[in-house]
Batch of 4 targets.
Target 1
Amino acid sequence: MKVLILGDSHSMYFSLNNELKQINESFRGVNIKVLSIPGSTILGFGKRSSTLNSRDFFIKELISFKPDFICFALGQVDIELGFFYRKVVKKEDLNIFDYVSMLIAAYLNSVENIQNEFGMPDSSICFKGINISVLTSSREKAVEYTSRIINENIEDSELKLKHHDDLAATYPSNLERYRNHMYFNEVLNGAVKNRYKYFDINDVIKCPNVLGVCRLEFIPSKKDHHLLDSLFMRELYIRRLLSTCLNLL
């Protein structure tokens, strides 16, 4: 069984090594190829020519790897960083609902174009929903990290500071950001239902006692918006992936 993953840096947890095959014997005989492209976005994937060339990279791997299943795992960068870049740096008058609608339409259009080009059946395609944010324990940490990323191509120090202050003044609460992430997944799941497959892992990583936050054991101590990398997390990712591909959920 061969599975090709296309995602941003959050898809690194799909990487399958020998230790994981020892932990879960069901993973033996499975070959997962992960195209984890840091900073990759839905809108960037839809372009035939982009800075990261994620579409061309994916097509080359699709042709050479010849997978049985393909999992698309994009959207985290768009929702958690791209949205704020557009609002704070580009000064776009944008709301999350219109933004998500635009993203999902572009996402499905890109996948359908590739599907038609290479004759991939609907049953071979699945989508992973985005994770709720790990930047929920400290608002200061969330603002600092987000500000650093959206400002990374800005050289003017005064402009960077202004963007930081604008972000800090308008940065949504944990509950609002939780709503944004869950809304993206809801729209994506609804759009692919009865055609493609869908899964996410938020039922495991969300705090059972406090709405809108991630469980403490999955939050890194450093300023980072990735889940804590562990054997537990990788086993969870891969188990959900394979169960979804094979209709075992």
Note: The longest strand covers residues 2-7.
Target 2
Amino acid sequence: MKKKIALPLLLSFFIFQINAQEIYDDALTAASYAYSHSKKAHGANNVYHTQEYADKAIEAFEKVEALAEECGCKAANEIAYQARVDMQSALEQDTYERSRYFAKRAKDASPKLLDILTTCQANAGDYAYTDEASIEEEENEIAEMKSEMAAKQQELEAQRRELALEQQKLEAQIAEQNRMKAELEAKRAAELKEQAIVKTKAETALKKLESALQELSVVLNEESSFETQSDYLRSENELKNESLDDTKSFYVNRAKELTQTAMQQFASYNLEN
């Protein structure tokens, strides 16, 4: 009779334990996402991105808060609540520095939140069951259920390691993108500086060429007036929309036009004479 009563009670007890472990698994997963979003919010380089990731972190902290309360992990519930409040404060700030300050507080609390949830989960699984009429079958069932919970714990650990690895990869990609961006910006700045040098020298040379052609035109024909051009004079701002080769091509074309005009005018002198 005791065996018939004990077995249903044992099964009910273990079903409760498994459900509790699943709640802890969900809480740990949500806490991992909250930690990831918090790091992104703190590491963002502008208010918009800080607040974007803060919003995602708030949602994750809210989930942890609810799950921690459900499974009775009071310390985790309190930390998740405070972290959520800090992230909400980050959203309410109007400066980049203030937003990052509150985001950092939430980020720094996240590892502690994960540790406390892990401790609560371990304590929830640390139980003992005794019965005067316990038999080998019941012991086997206990061992099997413990094995299942250990497997779930290992699965969660693997998921956490995978999440950390993905986070490292993402941070490495962002760092590489920033490096390439800085390299391109430096290269473009150097090219723009060289364009400015070409502009100054080319315009000076074209002015001298135009003056020489004007003087030669008067020498050959005092009544003539050489047609001057000024469309080769430009501002440095116009160089931003073209490459170094484009800049050189522009002044080459202006030089060709100037000499072509001179050749046409001097050709007419030869015809008259």
Note: The domain at 20-123 is CATH 1.20.120.660 (Four Helix Bundle (Hemerythrin (Met), subunit A)).
Target 3
Amino acid sequence: MKKISFLLLIVSVFVSCSKNNPTDEEHPQNKNCKTLSFVQLIGEGPQGTYYEETSTFYYDSQNRVSKIEKKYKNTIKFGRFTYESNTIKYSEDDLDVIYTLNNKGLIINTLRKNPYNTNEPQVNYSYNSSNQLALITSEDDNYFYGPTKTTRELIYENGNLVKIVGTTSLLNEPKTLKGTFTETFTFTKFKAPLYNSAYLELFENASSVDDSENLLYSLGYFGITSKNMVESMTPPINNTDNKTRYYDSKADQSGNVIEVIPNSSDIYKYNYQCE
């Protein structure tokens, strides 16, 4: 699992269908609900207190997220989305991302531009016949190892992503060296908060204000999402922390997750607006 900064981004976003959005059946959640804000209580501060970080979401006339505001102490950061016919553009202070869509409105390519990192890789995505994200491929010029290629195959059962099988290849070696890794998941009976992708670590290069890849995944732009809330994740055996991680979650009467405790100290809370 990535550092806690990655998990700051676990957010549930519920949207109604529009002509520019993926079809309704790709959204297992209540389409009449959307998230207004997400609050993370981070660790324990002095005398048992928590450090609080709040993400607030703003919507356009088609009920698509147009702006993210993240506030921590006296610092406020913004991320903005622009929706076009076959692209989605995301921007913040030092980052621009262009997402290219196929004729089904699904993202097939991500191009990131960062003035402080000229080696940002392009990432390609492909889908299975059920419109589920099936393969993620990226090539990078690693500072230590030279050109590398990483592929991640996604395997589903009963509408949930249960396994990721990954391969990393070092391309500069006389004989291409390959390493493999596997991650496995279990799920609860609760409906998935759409930011399950943050728990599942689907987007390793996400580094924006609120990880724009995860937000677009939640909106269905990376295909049909897992239908249930993650209960546990077992990382690759060679991970620095290879213990199975469990996620304690609470849901309202409609089955919408309202609180997640991903470890012994942090707490995530969701603020919905439902019609």
Note: The first strand starts at residue 33 and ends at 42.
Target 4
Amino acid sequence: MSNKEYGNQEVQILDFEELLRFIENKLEAAGKKVGREEIMLILQAQDDFLMEKGVLEEIDEM
């Protein structure tokens, strides 16, 4: 995870691979086995929802 400034806004950038590993580890610790493809689908749905609600927005990298 890193912080960058875009214009006058500070933006946090998350490492997607780190997020996937974290979720896989949490599920494994809970005795659950979920495939990476399924986790990615859920995360994409979450991103789409948050973007629709205006919580997240896409930015162009410079």
Note: Residues 2 and 13 are 5 Å apart (CA to CA).
